[in-house]
Amino acid sequence: MRRCAQCAVDVEGHWMRCPLCAAPLAGEAVPSPLPAVPLNFSRRRVWKALFLTSLAVILASFLAQLLFRAADIGLVRSVWLGLTAMWLVVLMAVRKRRNVAKGTVYLVVLIGLVCVYWDYLGGWDGWSLTYAVPALCAAAIIAVLIMVRVMRTEVGEHILYSGLTVLLGLAPLVFLVLGWVTNPVPSVVCGALSICALVVVQAARGAEVRHELAKRLHV
Amino acid sequence: MTRRTWVRLDNASNIFLAARTNADPKVFRLSAETDHDVDPHLLQAALDTTFDRYPLYHAVLRRGVFWYYLQDSDLRPVVTAEDQYTCAPLYQADRRNLLFRVVHHRRRIVLEVFHALSDGTGALWFLTDLLTAYHRLRYPAPGRPVTDDGEPLGAGTGPGHAVPAAPVAPGVPPGDAAAEPTHALSGDSFRHYFLRRRRQGSVAAGSAFRREAAPATLTAEAGAPSSGVAPRGTGARHSRPRTKVYRATGTRTPDNRTRAVELTMPAQGVLALARAEGVSLTMYLIAVFFESLRRSSGGLGAARTLAASVPVNLRQFFPSTSARNFFATVRVDHTYGEGPDDVGSVSRQLDGQFWPKASPEALERKLRRFIRFERMPVLRILPRPLKDVILKLVNGGSNRGLSVAVSNLGRVSLPEPAASHVGRILFHVTAVRPQFCAISHAGLLTITFTSPFTETAHIREFARMLTARGIDVTVAAARVTEEELAEVGP
């Protein structure tokens, strides 16, 4: 074993200098009981920076649209908002990739809000609540039902989020009752789909839903 | 379709989650050095059987709306060669992985555990069982049936060898944990003892038995010699420190890894030093630690008070077979420049502070206060992220009053055949401030210093003080800086 004369200690491993006082060591080296692990610089920090920057750019470009609210910038607005919305969708899909059902809830809410905002910027024709949101919700319900089957997600993992997706499908019915829609058909279709799904979930998975709720909401 | 069992996280574990940072992921490591290069296949077989006996270790950590909880999983641990730096993060939000890992390097078997899952004592039970199972496979006793079902689990089992689901020889006691059949994913001992009514009688009656039965307690080795000598009265007059508490600072390691330096020495020699001062080993070592910090700091300046936090295993007073966190911390301090400052006097002064605070009554009062705080209705309905912020602030506040932390798991006794083949056992934990952890086995006391900083001056002073007192010290350190790593090449 190597020895540091200054500290009067034996040193394990192939050290040239004492790890405590940096004085030169003398004697035969023995193998270190601890491996020398190369420095690692985490990709997590890079991802975090990219995510936050993206979020800031997206938010800024949505807010910037307010400046052109009165002006008729037509196609420019569509391209601009389309690109931004796409970026947002990709960002959230990547971030929430580990739980597809959870990711779907996030996407439904985010895209719904973007559509409403877009409609508002364009002078409010009501197309977002009449067509976009019901279509979005209905598509999400069908998508979740297919995905959890295909990916064999455990019931406990997805049931709350698929339940939430189904509940979001009831929102168009609320818009219909409040008279915010110009054409009732999409809302009715989406609402009916949602109610069917709700009945199925309650009948088949009621116990699981209650178990999950008790677990996640215990105080 | 399986409905997973779950338990809420206990009192101490919540703070670990809130206080976790990049530099301090709240992971601790227990390692044991055996007498040969570790056989990964046997270790995997031993891990599989041990894992089956510890449902707690199957748990993954999940986030609820109001609290974290542990949930059962089907994951299986895989033994790997040590290729990450010591105590690399184990828990990452949204990622469902086991909260411990078993790795090996040369002659060492290493167990790393996320602190929210278990404490040192609980992990030591697991390591004891793992070492016992491993050495039974490695050194099958001639003529002794190794397993109940008659299948020889001897050395030479090939890779990918399927391990029977039954635990290794349930009839044979795996160390001190033998009394407990399994360490279930339940049983929060904090709530059991400190939530409702006072428990009369059972504490005093149980503690004597438990002191014997507990595999490793703070006082098993350290406490006994001092009990008759320590001037217990002096603790009563201790008051708040009058000066600022010294807090070490330094250069962060390049990738936030923990700087760990291991000192190995004969246990008897150090124990004799502590006995000569009439104090427990832990308090003696803290006094040496304080002195080494004072020497390495180049003058304490206005912050003349040094304070240490010392965890106390609650199982010795409140019998529990749960491997989950069950400890409390006691704070001791010393202000320099207000009387005798030699190591002996400081250690006696610390010893006088420590024992009254570490009495079952004092600990119970403290823990009841914590539990009451945790169960406050207003706090309970706060969403979890907010709770984390509050706990982070609380933790930051208590950190400001601490210079160092010190943890002593005491003397480990392993059952045969592990006992005769295992040499030193080592123990350390990631740290937000300079810290050391001590543990002893086979007559060797190991003191592992950890710190988020690259500086080792305080360890140098510590080692020199011991060698000056005639103790033979051996140093092993993991390389953390670029220069240190460049020395060994890529």
Structural summary, described in words:
The complex is a heterodimer of chains A (219) and B (490). With 219 residues, chain A is mainly α. Helix content of chain A is 66%, strand content 3%. Chain A has helices spanning 43-64, 74-95, 100-121, 127-150, 155-168, 171-177, 184-217; strands spanning 2-4, 9-11. In chain A, helix 4 runs antiparallel to helix 6 (171-177) and helix 6 crosses helix 7. Chain A is elongated. Chain B has two domains: 6-162 and 171-179, Chloramphenicol acetyltransferase-like domain (Chloramphenicol Acetyltransferase); 189-488, Chloramphenicol Acetyltransferase (2-Layer Sandwich), CATH 3.30.559.30. The chains are: A mainly alpha (219), B alpha+beta (490). Strand 2 (9-11) of chain A pairs parallel with strand 15 (473-477) of chain B.
Task: List its salient traits.
A: 219 residues; mainly alpha; two-stranded antiparallel ribbon; 7 helices; B: 490 residues; alpha+beta; Chloramphenicol Acetyltransferase; seven-stranded mixed beta sheet; five-stranded mixed beta sheet; 35% helix
Order of helices and strands of chain A: EEHHHHHHH
Cα-atom radius of gyration of chain B: 22 Å
Largest sheet of chain B: 7 strands, mixed
**What is the strand arrangement across the widest sheet of chain A?**
1-2
Number of helices of chain B: 15
Q: What is the molecular shape of chain B? A: globular
Task: Summarize the topology.
The complex is a heterodimer of chains A (219) and B (490).
Chain A: E1 2-4, E2 9-11, H1 43-64, H2 74-95, H3 100-121, H4 127-150, H5 155-168, H6 171-177, H7 184-217
Antiparallel strand pairs in A: 1-2
Helix pairs in contact in A: 1-2, 2-3, 3-4, 3-5, 4-5, 4-6, 4-7, 5-7, 6-7
Chain B: E1 6-8, H1 11-19, E2 27-34, H2 40-53, E3 60-63, E4 68-71, E5 80-81, E6 100-105, E7 108-114, H3 120-138, H4 189-194, H5 202-213, H6 218-226, E8 259-266, H7 267-277, H8 281-296, E9 305-313, E10 327-335, H9 343-357, H10 360-374, H11 377-380, H12 384-400, E11 404-411, H13 418-421, E12 422-429, E13 435-441, E14 444-451, H14 457-468, E15 473-477, H15 482-488
Helix pairs in contact in B: 1-12, 2-3, 7-8, 8-9, 8-14
